[in-house]
Design goal:
It is built from nine helices and 14 strands. It is α+β, with helices and mostly antiparallel strands. It folds into two domains: 108 residues, Probable inorganic polyphosphate/atp-NAD kinase, domain 1 (Rossmann fold, 3-Layer(aba) Sandwich); 163 residues, Tumour Suppressor Smad4.
C-alpha cells in the first residue's frame, strides 16, 4: 500500500486488511520511496506468495506489476490514486472499498488469467507508455508532488497548459519512431497503448484508440505535428468518438510487436503515468501473457 496515494487512508487500509484476512493470510507492507513496491513484489514472488494486492495509484500498480511480471505470483488491484486508469479500464469501481468486493468475488471465482504487458527498456507498463509532450506534463506534475494528493487532476490540466504554451517545443520533431520496421521521422508526441482508455478526465474516458486491448498486441499513436487546432480536434474525438483516428498528421498503428524511438538529444518518457526520465533511445516490446491478473467480478 502507498499511504501517500490520494484515496488511501488509515481507515480503509484497516478495512482492506480485515476483509482479505477473512479467508487469506495477509501481510501489509507500506511503501515510502520510489522502487519500494517493485522490490517488495519481487521478494514476494521469490518467497512463493500467491498474490500481491497493489493498493495505491497507477504508479504503485506499475511498480508492483514490474516486480511480478514473468513470475507465478498473481496481481490484484485496489484503486487508491486520483485517476486509477488501469483499474477502471477493467470495469472496477473507483471506490476502493467497492473495488475490494469485486476483487474478493474474483478470487472466490478463480478469475485469475494471464494478460499481456508492454516493456520499455526493460521496465514493464500496464496500460500505456508516453513519449514527448505527455511525459513532459507528467514530469511537471511530479515536481509538485506535494500538491498532487490535494489538487488531483486540475494539477495535470495546469501542467498540460504550462507545457503547451511555454514548456514544450512544438516547432521541431523530438524523435523518430520505428514501428515494426516502418519509420516515422518526425515524431512530436507518441503513446504506446496496451489497453484503452489512455486516461480519464473526471468520469470521461479519453480514448486515443479503442482497439487497444489486453488481448491484443500494442497500438501506437504518433502525432507528427503539434498545433492547437490539431490537439483540440484530437481531444474532442478522443472524448466523443472512441479514438483520434488516423490522418495526415496522426499515425495510428495496431497489432504492433516492437517500437524503437530515437533522437540525438534525450527526450522524456513516462510509463503508466510515472515519469521515468529522458533517453536517446527507448525500445518498446509487446510481452504476451506476462502477468497473472485477478479480474474483478461485479457483485450485487
Amino acid at each position: 500500500m502507498n499511504s501517500f496515494a490520494s484515496a488511501v487512508n488509515p481507515r480503509n487500509t484497516v478495512q482492506v486488511h480485515q476483509y482479505l484476512s477473512r479467508r487469506h493470510g495477509v501481510q501489509v507492507v507500506e511503501t515510502n520511496e520510489r522502487g519500494h513496491a517493485t522490490r517488495f513484489a519481487r521478494d514476494a514472488a521469490a518467497r512463493g506468495v500467491d498474490l500481491v494486492v497493489a493498493f495505491g495509484g497507477d504508479g504503485t500498480l506499475n511498480e508492483v506489476a514490474t516486480g511480478l511480471a514473468d513470475t507465478g505470483t498473481a496481481l490484484a488491484i485496489l484503486p487508491g490514486g486520483s485517476t486509477n486508469v488501469f483499474a477502471r479500464s477493467l470495469g472496477m469501481s473507483n471506490d476502493p472499498l467497492v473495488a475490494l468486493q469485486q476483487v474478493g468475488a474474483g478470487l472466490d471465482e478463480g478469475a485469475i488469467h494471464p494478460v499481456s504487458l508492454g516493456r520499455a527498456n526493460g521496465r514493464y507498463f500496464c496500460f500505456h507508455a508516453g513519449f514527448g509532450f505527455d511525459a513532459a506534463v507528467v514530469e511537471t506534475v511530479e515536481r509538485r508532488a506535494s500538491l498532487k494528493r490535494v489538487v488531483g487532476q486540475p494539477l495535470f490540466i495546469a501542467a498540460a497548459l504550462q507545457n503547451w504554451w511555454r514548456g514544450y517545443d512544438r516547432r521541431f520533431p523530438h524523435f523518430a519512431v520505428e514501428i515494426d520496421g516502418r519509420r516515422i521521422p518526425n515524431g512530436f508526441f507518441t503513446v504506446v497503448l496496451n489497453t484503452s482508455p489512455y486516461t480519464y478526465i473526471g468520469r470521461h474516458a479519453v480514448q486515443l484508440d479503442a482497439a487497444a486491448s489486453l488481448e491484443k498486441r500494442l497500438v501506437v499513436v504518433t502525432f507528427r505535428r503539434l498545433t492547437t487546432p490539431l490537439l483540440v480536434t484530437a481531444t474532442v474525438r478522443a472524448l466523443r468518438a472512441g479514438g483520434v483516428g488516423a490522418s495526415r498528421w496522426i499515425d495510428v498503428s495496431r497489432e504492433v510487436e516492437r517500437v524503437r524511438i530515437t533522437h540525438a538529444e534525450p527526450f522524456p518518457h513516462q510509463l503508466d503515468g510515472d515519469y521515468v526520465g529522458a533517453e536517446r533511445e527507448v525500445v518498446v516490446e509487446h510481452r504476451a501473457d506476462a502477468l497473472r491478473l485477478v479480474h474483478p467480478v461485479v457483485v450485487g
